[in-house]
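Exercise 7. Given the components listed, write out the predicted structure of the assembled complex. Treat all entries as one system.
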Amino acid sequence: MTDPYDSQLPSSEGEVASAESAAVATDNLGVSGHGHRKLTPEEAAAMEEKIRKVEVAISLVLRIGVSLSVLVIAVGLGIMFSHHSQYTSFTGSFSYKQLTSGSSQFPHSFSALGHSVASGQGRGIVVIGVMILIATPIIRVAVGVLSFLYEHDVPMALVTLYVLIVLIGSFFLAGA
Amino acid sequence: MTPLVFVLSLTLVAVAAGVLGSLIGLGGGVVIVPALTILYGVNIRLAIGASIVSVIATSSGAAAAYVREKMTNLRAGMFLEIATTTGAVSGAYLTTLLPSRFLFAFFGIVLGYSAFATFRKRHAAQPLSVSNDKIANYFNLHGSYFDVAENKEISYKVVGTKLGLFLMYVAGLVSALLGIGSGALKVPAMDSAMHLPIKVSSATSNFMIGVTAAASAGVYFVRGQIDPIIAAPVAAGVLAGAMFGAKVLGRITSKTVRLVFVVVLVVISLEMLQKGLFP
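Answer.
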């Protein structure tokens, strides 16, 4: 192992770290870089409460994003099938392969997507639903930044902000 | 097969992919890509686009439950995302540098080895109680979770963050280059290098893969790889499966999670070796 910090094997538990540093690690629950000051039980409880709120907030963002995207996708799929009667039979000569070949037509730029939705095409609405799904983790990261600021945890807020900038940058780099 | 039958049957496949993906933190791509290309004869480019959608769906669907149940190590996950997103973005620009055949063969071997290493330590479930890791202590990446199968709260300490960051960078790079392997490298990085419990590794990998995938999803959309008639049943089915899978993880033993993970890892490893050696 080349990593100097990875030398802590289960068998050497308790021999390497002093009791003091172990105490610091447990008493500092959930905040970065507070040094060696011990938190009072009230402070620790308040911090625990804040962390819980962050977890609940992030879980809520994920559930809203996921439910919304499924809803939009279902509506889009319904419209798509109602517009094309040959899609909806269980038996028939129309094959799905006409929709899944390399040359199938569907929107893959934001302007084409706008046109597709404006003209009421189901496939455009499905893509909007997929976009909501793709946006959910990104919004989750943004909520993370705000949550860590709320916890007064500046190092973690900066870490999350960096991730958010890279994510948003990736979309511009892609030219979407 | 009519589009209706295609959508209905693919939804069922996607539910299975979501259950498996959420249990072992790999996302649904492991099941979705072979199913689409082999069973349905779908173009590989579109199958990879669907796989990205399935990874995001598994991640968000399962993470909603895992985060609420404190199974996910939120801080460690968000911290390690620095490396995965950077890796994913740099990977998108390295595609032409190395032949993908070489990469497939190389990572086939890497995953084969990590399957072996995970299998060997299947009985070791004892988490660390102290950590000298300065980064882990500074950002306080340690945590605890309630294990339903063992019916007790399990506290653990994190070590090896530098090695973990490096492996996470590679995971992001590989997922951008090859379209698979993101979670397959993340779980061993947390389980073996950083000593997180396997269930926490799986839940945290699950939490992270959505962000890694979102970092490359823009590229896939612009390249026209996200076909709505494939993406719709995949997204809906995988979400349902992942929500169900998230309820199961707490109840099964760590050893079972490891064994399921090893089996899937061996399959992915063989798949990659085949692509690298006999394309």
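Discussion: The mean pLDDT of chain A is 75. Chain A touches chain B through 92 residues (CB under 8 Å).
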